[in-house]
Design brief:
The protein is mainly alpha-helical and 419 residues long. 74% of the residues lie in helices and 2% in strands. Strands 1-2 form a two-stranded antiparallel ribbon. A hairpin with an 8-residue loop joins strand 1 and strand 2. Helix 11 packs antiparallel against helix 12. The longest helix has 43 residues.
Length: 419
């Protein structure tokens, strides 16, 4: 009976996560679509200079924020050399983001390659560090960064050679350019509206907080939900939504709100499915290994409440990550459409790539605030609990080296006096 009640409670919680997405997604999608149509109208009326400048500036700022924040925790800011590395990283992030915003598909491939290589390398380094119960050496972190940069350069060059036109941004002044910029502007507004809605609704109804998991478990939970989310993106966003576009997607003709609204609203189902699956995976992961001092059920876990400033910072961080991913997706889609691919093929490829990275966007947001940089080691728990993990920072915070040294000297003095 107890097991059944817990299962029903978990199902209600998963349903609450889905319901919050049902409430938050449609208004955000419609706001993004309205911005898309307004930007397309501004382009057709000759006001493209202002719209283009605002778009590129906002996207570049998102890139600077994401990469700069992560670089601060990766390199530190204690020395001039550290600060220089952070500044160079932030500038590179802003440049790549701006290139994605104006449709440079080679830059998109380079960015995605760097993210993939760095993620794989850092995860491998964390696994080795956890097994050896040691910190990740700084030279390994530096090696991961250099390997990611090399992968990005190789991807950029390979794509440029394979598709020479792909190395150049779409020339400003044609119909496809207005469509590209309009979609990018709509994505920026949609991303902000989604994050505001999710933050406002986060306290409504039962929920599970992934912050109660260790950083490694957050990555594992995201990986478990990757396959269903990717399938949903390809099937719903890549196949079902384009089927509702009776008059095309607007690449070669005027963008009409009424022609796109049905397809846009259908894509909400993908996010509903994603959050339901992710909530279920968090519950399953929580049951698989509890940490000392936390409740047995993740539904009972309540993280430290955020201040208004903290909530605003969370919204901005997650908006930046979401915006960058959506900019890369749009650049891929519009590039393929201008190369003659069908709406369905372009959407399936763009959505498939987007899903792989978007499933881990919360992990990127965690890295921006400094989570996950310390390896985790096994600690002794109660005999009734399975093995769990805590961060080395927590151990160091509880360890007073000076007190231990004084106690050791006192014991030696007592031993000498006794002798």
């Amino acid at each position: 009976m107890h097991c059944t009640s817990e299962r029903l409670r978990s199902l209600r919680t998963v349903g609450a996560h889905c319901l919050r997405e049902v409430i938050a997604q449609p208004p955000a999608k419609l706001a993004g679509l309205a911005t898309l149509c307004a930007t397309a109208g501004a382009w057709s009326s000759g006001d493209e200079t202002i719209a283009t400048g605002l778009l590129i500036g906002a996207t570049a700022a998102a890139g600077v924020l994401v990469v700069g924040r992560i670089a601060c925790h990766q390199f530190g800011t204690t020395t001039a050399r550290n600060k220089a590395a952070v500044a160079l990283s932030a500038a590179a992030g802003g440049g790549l983001a701006a290139a994605c915003a104006i449709g440079n598909e080679a830059a998109v491939m380079a960015t995605e390659s760097m993210v993939a290589v760095s993620a794989i390398a850092l995860c491998a380094a964390r696994v080795v560090a956890a097994r050896s119960r040691e910190e990740v050496p700084p030279w390994i972190n530096a090696g991961c960064v250099l390997a990611a940069a090399a992968a990005g350069v190789m991807a950029f060059c390979a794509f440029t050679i394979a598709v020479p036109r792909g190395s150049r941004a779409i020339h400003m002044g044609g119909g496809p350019d207005g469509f590209l910029l309009a979609r990018q502007a709509g994505s920026l507004v949609e991303a902000l509206a989604v994050e505001i809605g999710k933050e406002l609704l986060s306290g409504c109804g039962p929920s599970v907080d992934r912050r109660g998991l260790t950083f490694d478990d957050r990555i594992k939970a995201a990986a478990q939900g990757l396959l269903p989310y990717t399938a949903a993106c390809v099937l719903i966003n890549g196949m079902a939504a384009p089927a509702l576009l009776a008059n095309g997607d607007g690449v070669s003709q005027d963008v009409v709100f009424e022609d796109l609204v049905a397809a846009v609203l259908v894509t909400c189902l993908t996010n509903v499915l994603r959050n339901g699956v992710n909530a279920a995976v968090v519950i399953h992961t929580w049951d698989g290994g509890k940490r000392d001092g936390l409740p047995d059920n993740p539904i009972d876990y309540q993280a430290e409440p955020k201040t208004m400033l903290g909530r605003a910072a969370t919204i901005v961080d997650r908006w930046a990550v979401r915006s960058l991913l959506m900019a890369a997706r749009t650049a891929t889609y519009v590039f393929m459409r201008t190369q003659g691919f069908s709406i369905e093929a372009s959407a399936m490829v763009a959505q498939g790539k987007y899903a792989v990275f978007a499933q881990f966007r919360e992990v990127l947001a965690d890295l921006m605030v400094g989570d996950g940089w310390s390896p985790q080691v096994l600690v002794h728990l109660r005999e009734t609990d399975p093995p769990s993990r805590i961060d080395l920072e927590e151990i160091e915070a509880q360890f007073d080296a000076q007190a231990v040294e004084l106690e050791f000297e006192r014991v030696l003095q007592q031993a000498g006096a006794t002798a």
